[in-house]
Amino acid sequence: MSMLSCRVLCLLAIVLCCVGVAHAAAAAASLPSHVMEIVDQAKKLAEGTKELKEKCVKAGEAARQAGEEAHVFAHETKTNLETIAADPPKVEETKSKGLKLIDKVMKVAEDAENVANKTTDSERETDEKANLVLLSVPNPETPPEEIKGVLKEVEDAQKAVREAAEEIDAAKTYANKVKDALQDLEAAVVAAKEKKEKQVETQTQEQTNETSLDEQQGHTEGNQAEQTQETQSSSNAPDVHETSAIPLPTNATITNGTKRNDGSSSPALLRVPLLLLLLLSVLGCMAVC
């Protein structure tokens, strides 16, 4: 009894397998030859779409890396603005690096856009061929096996293009942040220069004030010395009141003095001839004796 059951089950399995193979053959045979030609064309297009999809993925990754590099640069530059602005060589180095980084990001983004556009064109062409096949089958919602791989490549390509577009947009945004950071750095350099000029001006003003103060002190000391000398001179000079107490000569005194200076009116001058006569008389007497 058990042997009979096993034989029956084996025969049933063989029958089912044959039915499945026949059904698959019937499904394959259900696609007309012209539709199979479209399927072959779609598969060839799908191969090209797959290659472009892989390039698009790599291009999107390159854009992501360049964008991250730009993001880090912008963040570090803004964080250390004052430190960089105070070091002229560092300023030039940062500017040069930032400009090169912007060019790099924009170049990578442009390349990624070109690859993404080519991928989009390819996947659309492939998708159109696949849709022609779907329109040729009784149930388009259930695509035949021959076209499923093509549709999968189309979906993967569309996904790669979307992701690449996101990375491209992010990279451009970070490149703009680098531009903003360089502008902020330029403003910080100007501010640092103005601050330094103000410090120099303040120091110069302080030195000028100190010099003026020293000059004022010197003038003050000189004035004090002059005042001291004047005070000493005035103390040695006769008092005005004492001077005013001395009687001034009158006109009569001046007239008398003038008369005394005149030889005709002086009594002393009148006595001189008399004395000479007296002396001669004495000498004469002595000679006689």
Quote the beta fraction: under 5%
Which series of helices and strands comes N to C?
Answer: HHHHHHHH
Helical residue percent band: over 70%
Oligomeric nature of the chains: single chain
What is the distance, rounded to the nearest whole angstrom, between the alpha carbons of the first and last residues?
229 Å
User: What's the total count of β strands?
Assistant: 0
Biggest beta sheet attributes: none
Radius of gyration: 64 Å
| Mean residue pLDDT | 79
Structural class: mainly alpha
Low-confidence stretches: 21-29, 237-265
Number of alpha- plus pi-helical segments: 8
Q: What is the overall shape?
A: rod-shaped
If you had to describe this structure to a student in words, what would you say it looks like?
With about 290 residues, the protein is mainly α. It is built from eight helices and no strands. Helix 2 (about 35-80) runs antiparallel to helix 4 (about 90-135), helix 2 (about 35-80) runs parallel beside helix 5 and helix 4 packs antiparallel against helix 5. The N and C termini lie far apart (about 230 Å). Mean pLDDT is about 80; it is low at about 20-30 and about 235-265. Keywords: Signal. This is Surface protein TolT.
